[in-house]
UniProtKB/TrEMBL annotation:
Residue ranges of the TM segments: none
Presence of the UniProt keyword Phosphoprotein in the record: no
Source species taxonomy: Eukaryota, Viridiplantae, Streptophyta, Embryophyta, Tracheophyta
PANTHER family, A to Z: CYTOCHROME P450
InterPro entries found in the cross-reference section: Cyt_P450, Cyt_P450_CS, Cyt_P450_E_grp-I, Cyt_P450_sf
Oxidoreductase listed as a keyword: yes
An annotated GO BP: lipid metabolic process
Name of the molecule in the record: Cytochrome P450 family protein
Cofactor needs: heme
GO MF annotations in UniProt: heme binding; iron ion binding; monooxygenase activity; oxidoreductase activity, acting on paired donors, with incorporation or reduction of molecular oxygen
Chain positions recorded as heme binding sites: 165
Domain of life: Eukaryota
Protein family membership: Belongs to the cytochrome P450 family.
Keywords noted in UniProt: Heme, Iron, Metal-binding, Monooxygenase, Oxidoreductase
Length: 219
């Protein structure tokens, strides 16, 4: 491969590493915080894991394959719900090349920069209903017990359209694997006096990080 090809490969690899590092760690922190503060969700996640892994005699690591975690519907729902309420990329901007008119009727001139909040879009009552501020994985589960398809222009955490996140599937698999490895082995309790709030930045980190105590589970 020539120099150009090498540079392309190097840049692509770096892009994938950078794009998925902070977003993933912020996403996991919010997910663990929500699970730790919603014991009924934690119990349902564990119940589902026990049901799914019960037949496996071996060590829990052997149930961490892609196929195994893809069976965990409730866990998938809980991760989507966490990304809805705390999208690791909280706002984005686009810039118009040509004049345009938005569906709202607003006129846009060339070079107009448009900022929009993924954080606000995940919490709008007219989109998500009266319980929009509640952490409810159930809203992602269909009557048949599968994952409800929610279009990307509504569940906007990975953006939508041709420049949406290339790592969406990877993210869901990785988050499920990390969540399984941690929750199967440990109970998470947030340190009592620790205050948790979002830090308004390019990535939605926690202002003071997440301080927790881990207790080993005996499963
Ligand atoms: C919780 C985890 C993640 C979230 C919330 C997330 C979110 C997003 C968002 C909102 C965008 C659009 C950015 C923009 O329009 O400027 C994006 C783009 C992108 N993401 Fe992710 N991402 C995550 C993880 C990952 C991972 C793990 C990878 C790689 C394996 C990845 C690769 C990319 C790439 C390459 C783009 C640019 C796509 C393009 O411009 O065509 N992301 N992501």
């Amino acid at each position: 491969m020539g120099q150009k090809g090498d540079k392309f490969l190097r840049d692509s690899a770096l892009n994938l590493l950078v794009a998925g590092r902070d977003s993933m760690s912020a996403g996991l922190s919010w997910f663990f915080w929500l699970v730790a503060t919603h014991p009924s969700v934690e119990s349902k996640i564990l119940e589902e894991m026990k049901g799914s892994f019960a037949s496996k005699e071996a060590d829990w690591r052997s149930v961490l394959g892609m196929n195994e975690v893809s069976k965990l519907v409730y866990l998938h729902a809980a991760i989507c719900e966490s990304l809805r309420l705390f999208p690791p990329v909280p706002y984005l901007h686009v810039c118009a090349i040509n004049p345009d008119i938005l569906p709202s009727g607003h006129r846009i001139n060339p070079n107009t920069k448009l900022y929009y909040s993924l954080y606000a879009m995940g919490r709008m009552e007219e989109t998500w209903g009266e319980d929009c501020l509640e952490f409810k994985p159930e809203r992602w589960i269909s009557e048949e017990g599968g994952i409800k398809h929610i279009p990307s222009y509504k569940f906007i955490a990975f953006s939508t359209g041709p420049r949406s996140c290339l790592g969406k599937e990877t993210t869901m698999i990785e988050m499920k694997m990390v969540a399984t490895a941690v929750l199967w082995n440990y109970q998470i309790k947030v340190v009592e006096s620790h205050s948790v709030s979002p830090n308004v930045s390019v990535v939605l980190h926690m202002e003071h990080g997440l301080k927790v105590r881990l207790t080993k589970r005996f499963v």
